[in-house]
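Quick start: load a record and inspect it. Here is Serine protease:
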Amino acid sequence: MLRRSAVVAALGPLLLATPPVLADDVRGGQQAVIETLDLAEAWRTGRGAGVLVAVLDSGVDRRHRDLAGSVRVGKDFTEGANPRGVTPRRLHGTYMASLIAGHGHGPQGKRGIIGVAPEADVLSVRVILEDEEPGFREFNSAERFENVVARGIRYAVDEGADVINMSISKELATRQERAAIRYAISKGVVLVAAAGNHGDGKIDRGFAPYSYPAAFPGVVSVGATDRRLRRAAFSNWNSSVLVSAPGVDIMGAGPGDEYWVGRGTSQATALVSGVAALIKAKYPDMSPPLVARALSTGATDRPPGGYDTATGFGVVNAARALSEAGKLAGHTETATGAEAHDPAQPLAGGDAGPVKVITRDQRQVTLYSAIAAAAGAGALASLAVIFILVRRVRRAQSSQEA
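Running the structure step on this input writes:
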């Protein structure tokens, strides 16, 4: 049995799509997301130039034509889990990176995947193995891999990341992760994580259970919406959800110049990380709490009352978030990570053991809303599991490409 305190990724069955579609059909398949996030308007402000987004995931194919030149391959914290000589699949990480910073290809980059921040750069930090990799069980059971997420966060911060995308999940927290998140926030780095995909499964006292690193204070938690911009059936709901984004039938890139269609809070998270990158490109000194406030106050399709546990403050809108960020740009508040645990203080679980993190219940949502509106510190997080039901979309013959 796998230790639930280990970080895991859950990939669903992969279905080959027939017939193959052209790369420009891929761009057409992105139009609903582009319109929902109001990217055409947001790109009038900028496209993320100068921002580095760390993708803590299964690795990124830096040779994919829609990512070429934008990816720096960083440290592999899973090294030793797979047998020597095994090539990482890098499917999920490539997929997420393309949604964040894909720049397309062909004439004027109009074919293939366009990310939310197409001029941003990606730092690939490998902290998970995909289900099909031979070292998956070893990775999720060996003690030496227990704190790969914490180590990956600190590494990304020290490498200059402005935003960290985490489409990963575990049920137990550790003090090392909490300390790493505090470190990142203190350095002005925005952390974004997925709310998880157990919304139609295990329910605890009326809401889907929390997981980590997303349920730590200071992490922007993202839920997934369906085509009608309502909570997707699989998306977790609880009071750590801050905002939502489209998470059903999302086009993305895969290794070897392939394209994929999938669903999950992972995809929604990548889209929100892209919006955070746009904000940091325009306002590089904006603190993580204020970025979180811009994301939440700029959201559309807000639920009755302004907040609920299904979609948070609503669906992220890039243009509106940038506008809200502009209003906040004159503020001087700096995130300090004060909500994170002081490593010098003892923990009930012991120095190396799991930490029981107290999360808010329904009665605290109103207070949370007020805090977010007043100070922008509502970037609380939630689960980050990946649940992909994808079908492969082969690229067209090279004769169809420019």
